[in-house]
Amino acid sequence: FEGSLQGVEKSLRALREARPDDEMHLPGVETVEDCLSGLEMGYGVGAGCCRCMAEDGVAFNITAAAGGLSHSKVDLKLSEHSLDKTPLCGAAGSCGCLACEDGLSRAYVSHLVKNGEMMGKISIMQHNLWQLCVAAEAARKK
Prior knowledge:
142 residues; alpha+beta; two-stranded parallel sheet; two-stranded antiparallel ribbon
């Protein structure tokens, strides 16, 4: 799959309704918005959005609520995170990824990203994967 789910969402929903018991996967989805849309429609999604956003220095946080899945993005290339001591998830103890559990601050990861250190991208990728897995679990329970 290439591109955005916009425009094909109606067809994907119809296919999902026609074959509710089949395991279906949307490979190549590269935005967190499309990943969440796919999950909410009952599709499996790859880790493409996690990798793409980590490459760009952007972490995301996903929240499951009664109205569905929502997300926020943290662009660690921005100077506003240079002195931010909070973890990638925003609050200590609210994320189980290695980066947040090890206490890596947004300031530290931002420093790594800005200096081209691979550990910055790896930390963001770990965090984004954790967030996506939690979102997939929440979508399955719906």
